[in-house]
Specification:
19% strand, 40% helix
């Protein structure tokens, strides 16, 4: 099989963690006899510096020509809180989502036995957590118009807009995934206050009737935020709108013990994008200390979701687990042991896939 992917390293630690993910992808392709075509392009602050555009036309063309996109991170301190900046790196991410019609962000949240002690929650609360957060990605307040500030600068406004069509496709996707899991969907909204949430709930109730085998619960976003820390194992598939999903998925990521461990998939109409949920972490850029596991696990999602190759995805997950159990981890999760570098972790996981290494614990 030929795998044609666009590689967008981006900013900060993006190039370093993407390099490790590509190592692992190449190892998987060798092991399972796939041909890999991987081409790089600019996005984010580096794209602004080179072209003035955080998501250049050339990058979009490459993405449209590819079967999947492996993406690192966007963001630079140079543009943070800089009133002189006419364009920001993050606008490139929004443009990519809109142009590729990446309407669904999927974040699996699972715990690792070797990291339970690092979770801020008690081990008995997080052991065995396995939930899927599905966030609508191209609508809501982040894209609503009008948006802006008054002439005197003392009043600002944003507009949250959702159409029935946008809600139908994301909620139906959530139910389809639930059928392959534990058959439970939690629809998160703020229907007691917001008109858009009332439409969400109405549409979700209509769709729920088509899935008699799936249990459905409706939850206000504030209650969902509390439930994630009180009883995270009660969730199976959680679906919600853009801003609520942004906040809740970051909250959910923390319970695993490290944000550097969680991958994501953004499912699109034209192609899909696979990326770690962490940011560009510019303080660590170039130091070879960043955790590449979220990006490597995003590559596993790429094999599973974009190419329908579950064995290849499983090989990556098993290699990541072996790496962690052997203590081959970066400093953010290396409590009590000598940390390894970003590149060392990538090398060891690729070697594990190729030759079954990582059998000896440090």
């Amino acid at each position: 099989m030929t795998l044609n992917i666009a590689v967008l390293p981006g900013d900060g630690i993006g190039p370093e963690v993407i390099e490790q993910a590509v190592k692992v992808v190449k190892a998987v392709c060798r092991k399972f006899h796939h041909e890999l075509i991987a081409r790089e392009a600019l996005v984010g602050a580096c794209a602004i510096d080179a072209t003035g555009n955080p998501y250049p036309d050339e990058t979009h063309t490459l993405c449209m020509q590819s079967d999947a996109v492996l993406f690192g991170a966007i963001g630079s301190p140079e543009y943070d809180n800089n009133p002189a900046a006419k364009v920001r790196p993050e606008q490139g991410l929004l443009a990519m989502r809109k142009k590729l019609e990446l309407y669904a962000n999927i974040r699996p949240v699972t715990t690792f036995a070797s990291l339970l002690h690092q979770s801020p929650l008690r081990p008995d609360l997080v052991e065995g957590v396995d939930l899927l957060c599905i966030r609508e990605l191209t609508g809501g307040m982040y894209f609503g118009r009008p948006q802006g500030r008054s002439e005197d600068g003392n009043t600002a406004y944003d507009t949250c807009i959702y159409s029935r069509e946008e809600i139908v496709r994301i909620v139906r996707l959530a139910y389809d995934y639930a059928l392959t899991r534990r058959k439970k969907v939690t629809v998160v909204d703020k229907a007691n206050v917001l008109a858009t949430s009332r439409l969400w709930r109405q549409v979700a109730q209509e769709i729920a009737g088509e899935y008699a085998d799936v249990e459905t619960e409706y939850m206000f976003v504030d209650n969902a935020a509390m439930r994630l820390v009180q009883w995270p194992k009660s969730f199976d598939v959680l679906v919600t709108e853009n801003m609520f999903g942004d906040i809740l998925t970051d909250e959910a990521s923390v319970i695993t013990g490290s944000m550097g461990m969680l991958p994501s998939a953004s499912i699109g109409v034209h192609t899909s994008v696979f990326e770690p949920i962490h940011g560009s972490y510019p303080q660590a850029a170039g130091k070879n200390i960043a955790n590449p596991l979220a990006t490597i696990l995003s590559a596993a999602l790429m094999f599973e979701y974009a190419f329908r190759l579950p064995d290849e995805g499983r090989a990556i997950r098993e290699a990541v687990t072996a790496s962690m159990e052997a203590g081959i981890v970066t400093e953010d999760i290396a409590q009590g042991i000598v940390p390894h570098t970003t590149s060392d972790v990538g090398d060891r996981i690729a070697a594990c896939i190729n030759r079954g290494e990582l059998r000896v614990k440090n």
